[in-house]
Specification:
alpha/beta; Rossmann fold; 2 domains
């Protein structure tokens, strides 16, 4: 299969040139190892067998010897290697010594150094439409930030967009049929519930309850649902399910990067509005939400309301990948007046941008109003500056710029 470049690639190159090591984290199967191997000169895979794990304990320095950058794949299987790698970086005093990849975060350990100043961090997600080749890539983030008007076009129909949502952005599913993808995503969820969580976290759990929790998360995708509501949903047909247990399960899902919550934006306001602080809930890929609920592309296309939630999650996945590649961060905005903006990007130069996500073109005007209200009467632009751009991300066909300066961009025309 031909390799397709990833949004995170430029960031990885930059970190290799500036840091002693780079840690790439993300859900299993999102393409971390494949990308890392293109930049590594040698490798050791800790999941290749018990002998390698034994060597990590008995001869860690020997295991780390090899041409650099040396990839240490699934490093979390031998957490003690972290401090050894950190010391190696200090002793060698050179950039680009190690690339670590991990599909889970090991338990916190007070003896484990943070890696600050030695190891840079990079987050990966499943493929965006631009990375998988399903975007026409006619509108880039750089163009959105420029002063001029944009033009472009998506060639993905409404029905095709629903199919892409059900398939998901897993590299293993490139050119796969919907039927193959549904089987893959159901298997992925089964593995999460039956083995990935206990192996990665040691959390004792009930696989059936975890599956029911995933179904509840799927129903509430792209919303600010509370733990209490999720707990009540699981309890409805299976007996009591304590919110504390639900929080433990959600934390475990975050540990293996299956849960990918979008935090609320904290920003200086010029109005008396108060910011809401609850995160929006997302899974690593919206295809997992479809799989959890047994929804195929036809059913999704025939449920515009839920498709809107799934489409927002698709856009969130893609935008976060683009923003992460620029060493930025992504949030959502909501205040007590009811104003909501789906995506806020903060870039590493201190600039910011705001995006609304609307599946259909009929709600562009509503989204434009929300974005302009945020800019003109909520955010204190004297303190944080004007936005780099405002945009409505749609599932429609055409890209253009409104007289207000707000861009309208099909997700399937956007690129990094």
């Amino acid at each position: 299969m031909e390799y397709r470049p990833r949004a995170a690639e430029s960031a990885l190159t930059e970190l290799i040139s500036a840091m002693g090591g780079v840690l790439i984290q993300g859900p299993r199967g999102c393409g971390k190892t494949t990308m890392a191997l293109r930049h590594a000169a040698s490798q050791v895979r800790l999941d290749s067998g018990p002998t390698v794990l034994s060597l990590a304990e008995l001869d860690p320095a020997g295991l780390l010897t090899g041409p650099t950058p040396r990839l240490v794949d699934e490093w979390q299987l031998a957490p003690s290697l972290w401090n050894v790698i950190r010391h190696e970086i200090d002793d060698r005093n050179q950039h680009g010594q190690f690339i670590l990849s991990g599909s889970a975060s090991p338990e916190e350990d007070a003896s484990r150094h943070s890696g600050a100043g030695r190891i840079g961090r990079l987050r990966m997600r499943p493929m965006s439409l631009a990375e998988s080749g399903h975007s026409t890539a006619e509108v880039s983030f750089a163009e959105l930030s420029a002063a001029g008007a944009i033009t472009g076009r998506s060639d993905i129909s409404y029905a095709a967009l629903a199919e892409l949502a059900v398939i998901g952005g897993w590299p293993a599913l490139l050119d796969s049929s919907q039927r193959q993808a549904v089987a893959f995503n159901r298997s992925y969820l089964d593995d999460l519930c039956n083995s990935a969580i206990p192996l990665a976290t040691g959390v004792r759990h009930n696989p059936q309850r975890l599956r029911r929790l995933l179904e509840s998360v799927a129903r509430n995708i792209s919303s600010e649902v509370t733990v209490e509501r999720l707990s009540a949903d699981v309890s409805a047909d299976g007996g009591p399910f304590d919110p504390k247990t639900a929080r433990t399960y959600l934390d475990a899902l975050s540990t293996v990067f299956a849960l990918d919550e979008l935090p609320a934006w904290s920003v200086a306001l010029r109005s008396k509005s108060r910011l809401r602080t609850s995160p929006k809930i997302h899974l690593a890929d919206p295809a997992l939400a479809c799989a959890a609920l047994g929804i195929n592309a036809d059913r999704l296309a025939n449920d515009p309301e839920f498709f809107g939630q799934i489409f927002e999650s698709m856009a969130t996945r893609d935008i976060r990948s683009f923003v992460d590649a620029r060493f930025g961060r992504t949030f959502h905005y909501r205040d007590n007046s009811g104003l909501e903006v789906d995506l806020i990007a903060e870039f590493n130069d201190g600039s910011w941008a705001a995006m609304e996500v609307k599946l259909g073109a009929s709600r562009v005007e509503e989204a434009e109003t929300s974005l302009l209200t945020l800019k003109d009467s909520r955010v204190d632009t004297d303190r944080v500056g004007p936005p780099a751009f405002l945009a409505v991300i749609t599932g429609a066909e055409y890209a253009y710029t409104l007289p207000s300066g707000v861009h309208v961009v099909p997700l399937a025309a956007l690129t990094f």
